[in-house]
Fold:
Amino acid sequence: MGKILKNSWALFFGFSILITAHGFQGNLLGVRAVLENFNYVATGSLMSGYFIGYFFGAHYAPQIISRVGHIRVFAAFASVASLSSLLHVVFVEPLLWILIRFFHGFSVITILIIVESWLNDRANNRNRGKVLSLYMFITFFGFALGNMLLNFSSPLKYEPFILISLLFSIALIPILLTKRKPPKFKKIGSMTIKELFKTSPFGSVAMFCTGFTMSAIFTMTAVYATVMNLSILDTSILLVLITLAGAFFQWPIGSISDNFDRRKVIILCALWGIIFAIFAVFSSGLKLNNLFLESAVRFNYFTTSFDKIKLFMFVTLLAGMVLPLFSLILALVNDRIIKEKFVSAGAGLNVIFGLGAITGPLICSLLMQKFGPNGFFVHLIIFLFPVVVYGLYRLSQRGLEDNPDSTFTPLPRDITPLGIELDPTTGANLSNSENVKK
Structure:
């Protein structure tokens, strides 16, 4: 591990600053949008704008990197990300914010592809797992720190946006001053959606639904908390709890899935996610125009008073069940294919995930407009429910198939196919240094 840090400290240091700024900006905009009285649809649309840019960036970034080179592209798009923060505070208009978020999403995915391809070049088959673990730790730590920076200053002021811009700019310094040569970029092919569905129908459907749920959790939670009149400190604490739940719940759930039918673990996670979402609704103290809820309240099955501690607890548990789904589904699909296709399958699943993530925040905002703040949880329930139902159906149609090459690997939510290649179980090619030795 010490050698990895020595050889890649500049890359990790720059990435940690950048991911902190990125995590800070997304939630800051959610809070600011509510304070600026943007309606739910406008807020959801600007959050979806990020994922649209992310989706297109994943397709076009490899071509740009191949033509221009890693360092120049990193500098260019880190500058675009820095500029986007300043534009948000200069032009406080929903339509412009949607456009700005598109370019920010395009920039972030490009930067992630560069970082992960660089890490792949410096990793070998003996230390890939350690590199991936360190990358994951920095990602979640950066997001947690970014969430706490919400307390830096009022979201209505310009200082937080300037801080984000400064962080993006500072992240450039260690990368641009590194002496090591950038890697040669290699483009990774992907399996088509048709191929993936044929390989694992349940995995494909579950990943599509996961795109809707995870995108809403990471973009609309700050909006929900602000509408619920939680303080900035409470909002940042809730966001940190969600981030930490996404990190720490992966290991025990993943370990269980390696020893049992992974489909059952995915179904149970989705089912518990629904249960915790329902409990969170009742803990909020707000009613929905829903016959079940009204009758439940009438017979005193649940309390309707706001209980912040219970709300935080149920939302954290909800995140702990939902956020590992991406890695679980990836491992499930790998159970059905040969080792050499692990990375291409991951690329295809990223496409399926992206198709759901693009419209996730927008649909969530529409449900919040119809049902109030708790429409956030209604959205999660709607898209977790098909995972449970279709999963149970698939259990009756197909038996358990064991693939000794496939194991669960905890992954951050923004992982790209190049990052998936860091998993030692993917059968990735040996690094250049190892090839030279041979």
